[in-house]
Automatic annotation (TrEMBL):
UniProt keyword list: NAD, Oxidoreductase
Domain D-isomer specific 2-hydroxyacid dehydrogenase NAD-binding: 106-280
Family (UniProt): Belongs to the D-isomer specific 2-hydroxyacid dehydrogenase family.
Pfam families noted in UniProt: 2-Hacid_dh, 2-Hacid_dh_C
Source organism per UniProt: Rhizobium aquaticum
Residues of the D-isomer specific 2-hydroxyacid dehydrogenase catalytic domain: 10-311
Name this polypeptide is given: Lactate dehydrogenase-like 2-hydroxyacid dehydrogenase
Length: 318
């Protein structure tokens, strides 16, 4: 029997290829572009995966497509509405990265507040010997009150870490969680008013677009710190640059940006912004675990008839 054909579109983690190779006939596209789909490819592809998402026009060019296995827990790059309407299963990689992303978030929070990357640069550039001790950080983690915008799988692990630092935690989500004792705020405005440190870990959806705006930043106040590890989409970057330049808030730590890999020059110019190139889950062990789960979804679908981790918009109905 001939093997099922799987399309890998754009960048793919090498371990996904390695895991899929024994099971499937792999067809590689340089980018997720329907113009690259030949009639032969269209006639046989039944599954797809990739790092760069899956637009509706590419799915539409593959009439036998049954499943898209997204590499990553955030699947905003996959047109899930098109998939759901066309009976295409979409899977993602939840849970296996929770701890890594939460660890990185705390690292980014501390780096933002205690200026550790700048202190290291001071040492490496010889300034410690030449000019003496690095400046005292104007801010401290001590005494802060932390609000988490999004208390899902990752947000909850961030909350546990923040609590272990002996800081009070509160949160905002659309529905209050019954399984936690952290203080709930039914609006982002109320949460921002109540805390001085806001950590954003919500998905990219139409409802979360630029919800961290000038008003929310003003509510955090002059001691305010914003950390974003969710998606750049959620922060109004112009408003954030204004707030940082004018000291409406004290500092921001960002792992994600609106138009990656482009980072606005205004943010790069700021001393009170700590900037990372979307690395929250980017360790070899965690990316390997994500690669394994991506591959297992495709293998399970074609060999056992069910996905491992379907997204809520395309539930498995047996
Ligand atoms: P979950 O789905 O488990 O959690 C999402 C949380 O956001 C829930 O608490 C949900 O609560 C809340 N939420 C969703 N929409 C809204 C809204 N409109 N208003 C308020 N709260 C909202 O996702 P994960 O924790 O697994 O991942 C979260 C996101 O983190 C991913 O979608 C991804 O974009 C990002 N991410 C970034 C990484 C990085 O490298 N920087 C790595 C991994 C993930 P409720 O439904 O009750 O509103």
């Amino acid at each position: 029997m001939s093997k099922v054909s799987i399309l890998t579109a754009g960048k793919v983690h090498p371990r996904v290829i390695e895991r899929l190779q024994p099971h499937f006939d792999l067809i590689r596209l340089d980018r997720p572009d329907p113009a690259l789909v030949t009639p032969e490819i269209a006639g046989k592809v039944r599954g797809a995966t990739g790092f760069n998402g899956m637009p509706a026009d590419l799915m539409a060019a593959l009439p036998h497509l049954e499943i898209v296995a997204n590499f990553g827990v955030g699947y905003d790059g996959v047109n899930v509405a098109h998939a759901a309407a066309n009976n295409i299963m979409v899977t993602n990689t939840p849970d296996v990265l929770n701890a890594e992303v939460a660890d990185t978030t705390l690292g980014l929070l501390i780096n933002t507040i205690r200026l550790l990357p700048r202190a290291e640069t001071w040492l490496r550039e010889g300034s410690w010997e030449k000019d003496g001790a690095f400046m005292l950080s104007p801010l401290s983690l001590r005494g802060r009150s932390v609000g988490i915008y999004g208390l899902g799988r990752i947000g909850l692990e961030i909350a546990q870490r923040v609590a272990a630092f002996n800081l009070p935690v509160s949160y905002h989500t659309r529905s209050e969680r019954k399984d936690v004792s952290y203080r709930y705020y039914p609006s982002l405005e109320a949460l921002a008013e109540a805390v001085d440190t806001l950590i954003c870990i919500v998905p990219k959806t139409p409802e979360t677009h630029k919800t961290i705006n000038a008003d929310i930043l003003k509510r955090l106040g002059p001691n305010g710190v914003l950390i974003n590890v969710g998606r750049g989409w959620t922060v109004d970057e112009e408003a954030l640059a204004d707030a940082l330049e004018n000291k409406v808030i004290a500092a921001a730590g960002l792992d994600v940006f609106q138009d990656e890999p482009h980072v606005p020059a205004r943010l790069i110019a700021l001393d009170n912004a700590c900037l990372l190139p979307h690395v929250a889950s980017a360790s070899v062990p965690t990316r390997n675990a994500m690669a394994d789960l991506t591959a297992e979804n495709l293998i399970s679908w074609f060999e056992k008839g069910r996905p491992v981790t379907p997204v809520p918009e395309t539930p498995f109905r047996g």
